[in-house]
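User: I'm putting together a teaching handout on how multi-component assemblies are represented. Below are the sequence lines for each component of a complex, exactly as they appear in our records. Could you produce the 3D structure of the whole assembly as structure tokens, so the students can see both representations side by side? Please keep the chain order the same as the input.
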Amino acid sequence: MSFSWTRAGAILRKELRDYRRNRFVILTMAVLPLVFVALPTISLFTIKVSVTSARLDARIGLSLLYLLIIPAIVPSALAAYSVVGEREQGTLEPVLITPISREEFLVGKALAALIPALAVAYTIFGVFLAAAALFARPGVASAVFQGSHLLVQLLFTPLLAGWSIWVGIAISARSADVRVAQQLGVFASLPPLAVVALITLNVLSPSTGLALGLAAALFALDGLGWRAVAAMFDRERLVTGGRT
Amino acid sequence: MVCLALASGGGPPGSPPTGPAFRREMRTVLTVPATRLRRNQGSTPGGPDPEPAGPDPEPAGPLGGYAVAAEHLTKHFGDRVAFEDVSFEVGYGEVFGFLGPNGAGKTTTVRTLGTLLTPTSGSATVAGIPLSMANGPQIRARISIMPESPGLYLRLTVTENLECFAGLYELDDVRGRIQRALRAVNLADRASDLCGSLSKGLRQRVALARALLNDPAVLFLDEPTSGLDPVAAREVHELIASLRERGVTIFLTTHRLEEAERLCHRVAILNTTLLLIGQPGELREQLFTKSLDVRIRTPLDDPGRVFAHLPGLEGWQQEPSGYALAVSDPQVAAPEVARALVHAGADILSIAESRRTLEDVYLELIDEDVEARRR
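Assistant: Of course. Below is the structure of the complete assembly, with chains in the same order as your input.
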């Protein structure tokens, strides 16, 4: 059977409906990014008038890197819950006994984590841009609105979310407990945090080359992630709880 | 119910064969392999069965062959045997009961036939398609399995749950199918309710509606009344009975024997291996001697003398409330027994043909199997 977007879409619609009725999920997705947007926004207003152009660019670059932690963190809990959560609720077996393939199931689950992550991350980025346009000094605002900055945000947001989602689903497919899966899922956001830390500590210098290299690496990892998770998705083990 | 073979006493020397003899006779019957009983004694899918109502099942369906056929199907989990050497056929339109104690391998068999688990050995066809992981999507598209736990999304409404599964089966006319499925389980008026707000019995009905969405060629029901109160269980029974009336092929796993007896055309008894397969009435006749239960006010002084030489009497056994008589034909023997008792001056309270249930068959087989394994 070929890949069916109808089946993947059925999983996606079900997940989105489920989120809508679960206030705790919505609250978690909304509150955490607000914490992460606070620091870079405040940072914009503390930039002195006398700062050099290079220094200004570096400060803004670092602020924008903080924003990229959001797409890594927001979907990790959703992805980590996606398989093991259904298993614990007893809803996984009825789904697995339909004609759905593991690839369709995984894509449905991944999209269900990706869509809210992108919505939240882009909304927060919009808030950041609005704050810069309305309240930052004109020099700072024009630096924020540079094309390269906007492009990096638009490009890296889905790539980082993808990384986080596949790691989360992989953990979820192999875990026997929701709590363990969600705790391990947090580690998915560590690599982007590490990049931020390395740039903050001047170990890495932000540059177009570095950005393109990281983007290419993430793109490849996301593609491999889907394949790897599909290979790890074992119906028999999931149904029997690992008795095989 | 009276079991003639349980006590070791019996009649005096010279009397017709009593308890131990019945026991030996039953052992002989019990050791007949399931396949021999099935094939040699008329218990094929589609055979006459006066007990359950509904259309007679057809051995060959539209695709030819059986709805489900298993040949020496085996599943091991490492060293542990889930089920072994299981062979049976289920005809189209048949309600087939799969009985067994907890841990007998019933659910694992269903999961294997539903392509969730890979069999260790053996072969099967499900809905006319050879069982293999490669054929999994095709098989799963043509069958439905209702697991023991309904597994509903509790924050979604009944309709939203069914819409999700209609999408997973890529069904057309989703709204119409959902309405028909809900009408079939008498839940049309609860379509907009959140599943989390429904009682356990109603959730089970939603799960049944979900299983009916794709008009399955074979509907597997795994312990559908497990954990339900008697009223809810009766409602599920009625739903299954109505599906049987419509000619739906049902593979019902249960350890509720009255459920199987009431609903199934044929039953198989599994305890890791298949112990027996046949129609409930046929199994009763195969496993138990026909008998009369005789209740009298005071015990006979010399029952051996009273029961000796009665036509059609094959043995007798003293019971707390009277006597159990093994007879070849209760209709012929009962008047003779009554005359003999009156002649002996006994005050007769009742003479009745002993009716054995599927539960008697089941318990006898399971006990026998446990004893055999101990040996």
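A couple of points students might notice: The two ends of chain B are 28 Å apart (CA to CA). The domain at 19-29+289-355 of chain B is CATH 3.30.70.980 (Alpha-Beta Plaits).
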